[in-house]
Records
---
Amino acid sequence: MDLKLKQCFLAVDDHDKALAFYRDVLGMEVRNDVGFENMRWVTIGSPLQPDVEIVLEPPGANPDASPADKETMARLLAKGMLRGVIFTTVDCEALCERVQEAGVEVLQEPMDQPYGVRDCAFRDPAGNLLRFIERPRD
């Protein structure tokens, strides 16, 4: 089979704050920004991966979600209980410093892991977990 990842979705409660983080701090490019029926979807991606996109969507954006389900999603997002994304980087230390300077919540400073990578972890402005992995250079 010829399968490749194209898009993944992250729930955000404030697209402008999310854009300030993903675009201005992490250097992602905005590929699409669509509003529809009082909702907004923003597609971002790394300039190094033009064929992979992250869609920033409202919590509970599923049109089949009940009002109670949408409220539950919003509460889980606010608590940081929804899953996030893992990125790779060539320099965890520099990335961590840049993110800290932007005032983002640091969950784990860069550290060597027993499984062979160096990584760090943050929460985006909506509370999503983001991990950044630096692979060994040799």
---
Amino acid sequence: MEDSSSLRAVGWARSLPVSSGVKVARDWTRDHLASLGWAQTAPDLVDAVLLTVSELVTNAHVHAHSAAQLILTWDRDCLHVTVHDASPRLPEQRHPGEEALGGRGLLLINALADDWKVYRCPYGKDVTACFQPPPPSTVA
């Protein structure tokens, strides 16, 4: 039997063409979060991650006009949710009016994630949001 304490990180990746839709990304992410046990221990955190995935993949498809590469990396300290797209243009946080139908994606990510960053890449950019794990259960 392998010693799980030697496990440093685990990750999953999925390519999402513009035609795939955001539901595919959410369903795929939900399945991996369930494998971490978060669906039972931290359903609110799962909802925050899924909303972030929706926003980041939508941004890649709508604003970057690009396929999205969705990468989830779990290192026991943080679940890193990364979406890569082919546009070199960095996202800009907007301040939409009350009647605006859009423009709140980065505001949501800022509120939901423990941290988020944008990284330039040779062929586009990565937007990464970090979610800290739920506290250990204190069931006696």
---
Amino acid sequence: MKYSKATNYALHTMLFLVAHTPDKPMGVQQLAERQNVSPTYLSKILTKLVKAGLIESASGANGGYRLRRKGNEISFLDIIHAIEGTASLFDCALDHPSECLIQQEMVKAEGQMEDYLRNKMMSELAEKMLACQ
């Protein structure tokens, strides 16, 4: 199973915002430099996070992006769904007369993974990251 690079950047951006600047806006340029990614590309990712209600944007001289929710209310799954959507990772292409047994098992496995990611909060990782610095 593989997630997109956008999800990777979104998770890292959110970790940085939770750990370092929960209330203070951070500019896209500074966030992009931390990950060595194009500000234009990261802006598209940030737009998805804004639409999902995870962060908010503030314009002006002291503008940028900041958390809209507390770090202990933001799960890995929230971020992944903001970028990847909520569609199933597996879709059976065969035409079956009844329910696909393979599809049923894949949906169960996805459910278990989603439960884990739903319970893994960004604040937990932020605390570990700050303890290592």
---
Amino acid sequence: MVRTLILLLAQLASTPIVSEAVETGEHRLVDLQTFECRDITRSTVLQRVCYDRAQQDLIVASNGAYHLYCGVTADTVERLLGAPSMGQFFNRNIRREMAGSRYDCT
């Protein structure tokens, strides 16, 4: 038993750490290494929210797809996470209706 545990720990120590990457609906592969991600359980619209504070990039998983939003302030993300209805806040304040909209990544 101890030998098995030692072998397992040795394998884990030698395994390279690979950061997670997701493909957004805009067909961009985004490395989440610089993002802080939270799984969302209290919303029927959002499943995951990832935010890069330095770049002000927001990635949202909604209906099983990831979408990238650029230029989103930390205050907006905090309001999203604290909203009584995250889905309503997201749909009213963040979601893009067309290219060239607010938070569009050019």
